[in-house]
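Lay summary. Proteins are chains of building blocks that fold into shapes, and those shapes determine what they do. In this project we predict the shape from the chain. Here is one chain we studied, written as its sequence of building blocks.
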Amino acid sequence: MKSAPFVSPNFLERIAEPASSFYPDYLAYRRGEIARAELITRLPHVAMLGDSVCMGIYISSPLGTLWRAHVSRGKNWFLHLDAAPGICSISKCLGRITPFVAIECASVGALVDDEHRRPNLFRRILGTRNFTAQVRNLVRARRFPDLILISIGHNNVDWAWRCPPHQLEEVDERLKQLGKDFRQNYTRDLRRLLECAQTQQHRVAIVVFGLINFESYFKGREAVERLRESDRSLYPHLETTYKYFVSFHPVYRRNLIRLAAIANEELRAMVEALNHEIVDQSEQIQLRYSDALATADLSRAELLHPIDGWHASVEGHNVLADAAFSDVKLGLQFLGLSD
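And here is the predicted shape, written in a compact code that computers can read:
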């Protein structure tokens, strides 16, 4: 599914206020000097790259899952389009500060991928866009974002998927290699974003989020499993998870948690190394690693979706949004957008 921009619905009324920093652009628009599209281009642009952790989705029947994979947008901790109370998303918080354009690039099943490896048939049917494709689309877009949030890699910690049988017991070398490959592929695509950011006429802030806190997450998952044992009508697609994510089986979880910790350390080290490469661009580009999601407490059953007990519920998205926005604020300050 292609990225679809969302423009603050009341942006014209807001920038028509003389106190707005966009008031001169509004006047140029009213005089017919610039078109509406150009006016929108001048608003701050915020993009979210990621996987289903960033999306309001859940697993059910194959057809239901396929349908949601292609239509699920604007119901998550990054962007929530419903004006009614629900998810206090990052975009809702940002909207109180300034009108803006939000770009959702996240995709169901997305991986930090080897650019030369074609997605498997299942992901192609889902319309999955891996990290390489998401970055490619963003780099080729007419307007490069001011703020880029990245939360991807959760599908990369499925260490038992396609695992040779002899490595299911002796996993240390496999986890080490998976972590190394993860950093190499992530670095390649993040460097492409940085190279594009260096050519822009505006400041760019990029936040790399660590993977979620799987140790606390599985405590919530175990609570969900106990609830389902006592009432089989609850979480009807809880076991369906294992068809899509082998390492969610209880026997494999300990090493999934280990791999996620390895991945987060690789992300932290990667950001530090890349910041050394762009030290001369510190006034133009801000690149930060955030452990906000890696330290968020996800240990309660109510934070998981009532259908699959895997993806985030409304309450779960609120926890993620609250955790993430604390670090997003620093990017907004760098861009001069904080209130």
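What the prediction tells us: DSSP finds 13 helices and six strands in the chain.
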